[in-house]
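Chain A, query sequence.
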Amino acid sequence: MGDEINENCSTCETETSGTRTAHHDEKIIKELINRLNRIEGQVRGVKGMIERHVYCDDVLNQITSAQSALDGVSKLLLEKHFKSCVKDRLSQGDDEVIDELLKTIFRMKR
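Chain A, predicted structure.
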């Protein structure tokens, strides 16, 4: 992800293929990747606990911890999405982003 974004490019830009991309700064990307790497380790740990026949309650506590960590990643990404992608699309008159965002939030709340 380069720093060169042309002046007509929105934060969540639609490429010619129709796929949108996010343009978050490298600090945020690094933070998200670090969190996801830790979560990946937690999930591998849960798998190992099950393979070792660790007491169910202990495994469930580790699963809850991994889910909480994923929720943290979701909240951070949602915050950045609001402050960049959604803000840019609204400023360009794209009100469809509101329905898209509501669907995403409702899905997250299930």
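DSSP finds three helices and two strands in the chain. The first strand starts at residue 12 and ends at 14.
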